[in-house]
Amino acid sequence: MMPLINLPSIIIVNILLILGLANSESAYAKTNQIIDIAYLTQEQVVPPSLSNLDPFIKDKGVIGAELGIDDDNTTGKFIGQQFNLKRIVVPIDGNIIRVFDKEISKKFQYLVINLSASQAAQLVDLPAAKKMLLFDVGTIDDALRNEQCRSNVLHFLPSRAMRADALAQYMMKKRWTKWFLVVGSTQEDLLFANALKRSAKRFGLEIVAEKTWDHSYDKRRTAQSDVGVFTQLEDDYDVLVVADEQGQFGEYLDYRTWVPRPVIGTQGLVATAWHKTHEQWGAIQIQNRFKEKAHRWMEEQDYAAYLAVRAIGEATTRTKTNDLSKVKEYMLSDSFALQGYKGNPLSFRSWDGQLRQPILLAAPRSLVAVAPIEGFLHPKTELDTLGYDQPESLCKWNKE
Amino acid sequence: MKNKYLVFFLIMALNATVRAESVFVTLEKDNALAVIDPIAGKLIKTVPVGQRPRGIAISPDNRSLYIATSDENIIKILDVETLKEVGRLPSGEDPETFALNPAGDKLYVSNEDDSLVTVIDIAKKKVVKQITVGVEPEGIAVSPDNKWFVSASETTNMVHWIDTETNAIVENILVDPRPRAVKFTEDSQQLWVTSEMAGTLMILDVKTRQIIKTIKFQVTGLTADKIQPVGVVIDKDNNRGYVALGPANRVAVINAKTFEVEKVLLVGQRVWNLAFSPDQKRLYTTNGISNDVSIIDLENQVVTKSIGVGSYPWGVVVKP
Q1: ipTM
Q2: Which of B172, B178, B223 sits opposite A78 (nearest CB)?
């Protein structure tokens, strides 16, 4: 059905014109407010991968932002608001701070950033950035939402702690209470392993063994053939929990463990903000609209960037203003409810700027569950059973 | 009304197997239509109707069923008695919900993927007009006096007021997030709109087309984000309205004069759409996750029965 190549844009323009003309002009309001949004990212080095199944996607995020702008403008045209997106991609060897100073500083109020945790941490403290509202759609770092939190930043992807809690809730439901934790050797893998340990403690689950996959287990053999040996343990376990964010070995674990046990974590059953298997709650509509635009599946960063741009749209439309402090106040208020195709209305945690949201637990071709898992209760919203709740938060942005 | 009963008795005479009242339910995942005898409390039969059936309506003469088979991009016309396909309407892409005008000669369809509303002439089986509305149009309704039809767009969060004579948008009203269902009162004075994400029901005055009242639903023991209003109906005398609260698994009973929520009734899981019995003494609900239909006795305001129907019951209509 969907053409794989782009239709000549002129045809699309013509169709739009015809549709436009078919309507009475009075349906649209005169533009009286322009809202400019900048999107900043950096080109990525193609990482090593285990297979050719998933091609490297270099524009993760930005197409989601563009879809968000389309949707914002559909509302905007009826009420006289126009939304513009400026896409800024810094080359691999470019300097983000310099680009920010030159192209963004003092020109924008709203900045969507799809950057690494260290780059984001650097950027948010620039004096010019302090006067803006930043929408982080690239990091999952817990520190950025705790000790290093900043009041000018909102985070759209679920943090590692939220993902680990989602997985832990599911494992509790399945009574997979004894974990074998396998951790990769990168800094990110250690962070996710820490999040998993926090969740295990939080939900009373037991880590019976922990091993590091260091890629030097036996140099004479392949990674695949190593798994059997690697997973021989003295103690029995219910589930192998893996922390391998870059996907350097995790895919080898399933079906190769010494005893038959499910794999969960960064491979096998994964916790994610968005997944191609997700169709419920109107998700199929946005999956279709995204695929039509991008000719690929929607990734987590696309979803996050879509929500960021939609949050700006929703807040400016409701408050009928472009005044940053009012828009921000509304976004963090109880009245703010963002539709995110995951059943629950989405809103921000006022204590750390994290978007509270359901987390999908997905196998490669099937959506297995959506966390919070039924039965995990919270006095305010069950969504806050995932990640750092207000009493646990280490974010002190009010005292900045 | 008398004519309707006459037709009904004629049909009864012709076909002895037809019961006194039939409830038709589209089954989104079974690609089928379920037929229920609500008096006996039984599923009579299930017939295949096409890919992903959702919206359903019955003609004013009760002879034809219209069913949107979303994945086939058409609306099928079924003979009520034989349940065989007798025609097709060009609905535009991905039809979901639609509404008939009071005369039963025009059909207004939401095309969710294309941000369009399609107006169809039923006799000619032709598209009369396509109107660009907001993103993901869903709820749609025609006023009983046939002056307005209204389309609600889920992602744009708007209600579009469209003149039935000109088929042009007259006004766009911003409403609470993710508006789902829209319904006019019988006297065409009010429009009731549900918001899934804000957990509210908004009452709009037709004269001014503005919101005059917003009701926020609450259910003891449930957090606010579980309360997601979807389907809405209002009785003929405008005494009470009923709102399906989605994953709250309840139907709210609203006093249509004072706008107070009088009661919430526990039904099946993820209650979605609602339909009255012809005498308005019962209410039928489709429960998407528990795969059943609940029957509410409105005189006593109690749920009397639930009937298993099949996967993902979606739309519901009743034939006297």
Answers
A1: 0.78
A2: B172
